[in-house]
Amino acid sequence: MAYQGYNPYGGYGQPPQNQVSPEIQNFFSQVDKDRSGKINSIELQQALINGKGQQFSDQACNLMISMFDADRSGTIDVYEFEKLFNYINQWLSCFKAYDRDSSGAIEEAELAQALSQMGFRFSPQFVQFLIGVNDPNRREIAVDQFIVLCIKIQRFTDAFRQRDTQQQGIISIGFEDFLGIALACTN
After folding, report:
1. pTM tops 0.85, yes or no
2. Which residues partner with 109 through β-bridges?
3. HEC letters along 103-167
4. Beta carbons within 8 Å of 144's beta carbon, 6+ residues apart
5. Per-residue pLDDT band at 9 (split at 50, 70, 90)
6. Which residues pair with 7 in a beta bridge?
7. How far apart are CA 101 and CA 95, in angstroms?
8. Positive or negative: CA dihedral 74, 80, 85, 91
């Protein structure tokens, strides 16, 4: 048997295959305020700031934790956090690409362009509605609202496509099925 030497990731032998980068480990440690080895949505919320200098919403943090929480514990470990970290950075890049004036928020025209380039063909009135649902007073959406909005639109689109077997853009749906979709897509 060959001597493989000591490694800091678990004694002797090879380091684990799914090792996270030191950068991710460091950021995870900073976010994990209670030192539990897990991050909950409150800890995540305290770490994330949107372009307007505000913490991400409860809804955004709960949604993102639930998306990466493999064991459904309501928390994520460092490996799940790495996936979430990469996911958030992808959304940030997308958001910055559409926030052309670098205001930290996406206004109506920017949102319409973003949704169009994502393949959605919404009327100007519907884009106004989407912004109004997210921010009735300011008429713009911050990055956390943008992430939640896009995730919800994608979830509803996927559910719609499953039922639109003829690909006509029209479905008939029972009330319970509708409620099931609405509840599943918004959590």
Report:
1. no
2. none
3. CCCEEHHHHHHHHHHCCCCCCHHHHHHHHHHHCCCCCEECHHHHHHHHHHHHHHHHHHHHHCCCC
4. 48, 50, 56, 57, 60
5. very low
6. 11
7. 11
8. negative
